[in-house]
């Protein structure tokens, strides 16, 4: 299968598709805000806060499951035994999906009390509760939609996955309008609930379409599937359950660190908070480039592992080189255009000089950020959820947040607070690289696609 070969063309095509997919994904939240804005400031604020909470729950409960499933699927595709592995993997995914749904439902009950305890506006609490309740009640569909999207990319249908997301975006916008501005609005407790339902509905629709596209692709390839053995499904589900939480916790730690950093910087005043908000927005858009590249690392390393590649260090170096070039070019472009970018996003009375300096601080962390995530994705393929969770927790809560607190309350320097982010990234990069070299490149892999025989 040509799409599993590690070539510049294949990697570039894959990473470009993931980059475009990321840009479209940003639009889902933006279109919700745009469509609900005529309904009032409270509704906009509730959607914004609800989306932040839902992002945290998704990072904790969904991303680990999807990444664990995807890495094993990529290994199977590289080994050319997808037909044998997929039924077992899919059945195990459904098992974890149900567990994640139950966990999301339980956690959603604590959103209202948690917001009240945090002193949030009493008018916002029920609205945010509506949003989170609707989104968490469909966590299973969120995971299913994401897993299907990854499956299409891994199986050589990356352009179809992008098309699917574009159609999903259009569907989401259409459902927003129907649920907010037609008679259908009367069926919802609030406009916030209507917007959340529109997103859920679009995910369900494109998940169904994605499944149809995938099954048609499998028929064209002549793949036939058989009923999976119950014992094999149970073993696979237990193996995935050992790995997925660790991967999810790593993403949640990143999320918690970012939120805490913003809150700490907000104590330095409105001008600093506004500058941080704009700089973070530009940084987040730029990060779509390295994130797309390390997604390519994740998939193509999995392909090579499945093929039994003897020289995995060479594969990793090639992938890092492929990722470094567009990331460096993107960073230079952002730096050179920073006056224009800041002017585009900043308000009329905002300190643009401060905003540009904070953006520069973010850019200084790029090399460490890329290497950390490069080796982090390789460890995800090797099913090292325990290490990913532990290392990211220590660096987030022992290094990143304390360093940020010192920068805010002792040094009073927002630039140093952001630039200090290079320290935990360097530590994580060193830990991840050492683990990969010691545990996975100095011996033959045993049970690399199930986690059996691989250190946690």
How would you describe the overall organization of this protein?
The protein has helices at 8-36, 41-61, 63-79, 82-108, 111-117, 124-137, 139-154, 158-181, 191-221, 230-266, 270-286, 288-307, 312-336, 338-345, 352-364, 366-381, 385-409, 414-419, 422-439. With 456 residues, the protein is mainly alpha-helical. The model is unreliable at 444-456 (pLDDT under 50). The radius of gyration is 22 Å and the shape is globular. It starts with 7 loop residues before the first helix and ends in a 17-residue tail after the last helix.
Q: Strand fraction band?
A: under 5%
Structural class: mainly alpha
Quantity of strands, as a count: 0
Question: Number of DSSP helices?
Answer: 19
Order of helices and strands: HHHHHHHHHHHHHHHHHHH
Overall shape: globular
Mean pLDDT: 91
N-end to C-end Cα span: 32 Å
Radius of gyration: 22 Å
Helix content: over 70%
**Sheet having the most strands:** none
Low-confidence stretches are 444-456
Secondary structure layout plus pairing:
Elements (H helix, E strand, L loop, with lengths): L7 H29 L4 H21 L1 H17 L2 H27 L2 H7 L6 H14 L1 H16 L3 H24 L9 H31 L8 H37 L3 H17 L1 H20 L4 H25 L1 H8 L6 H13 L1 H16 L3 H25 L4 H6 L2 H18 L17
Helix pairs in contact: 1-2, 1-8, 1-9, 1-12, 2-6, 2-9, 2-10, 3-4, 3-7, 3-10, 3-12, 4-6, 4-7, 4-10, 5-6, 6-9, 7-8, 7-9, 8-9, 10-11, 10-17, 11-15, 12-13, 12-16, 13-16, 14-15, 16-19, 17-19
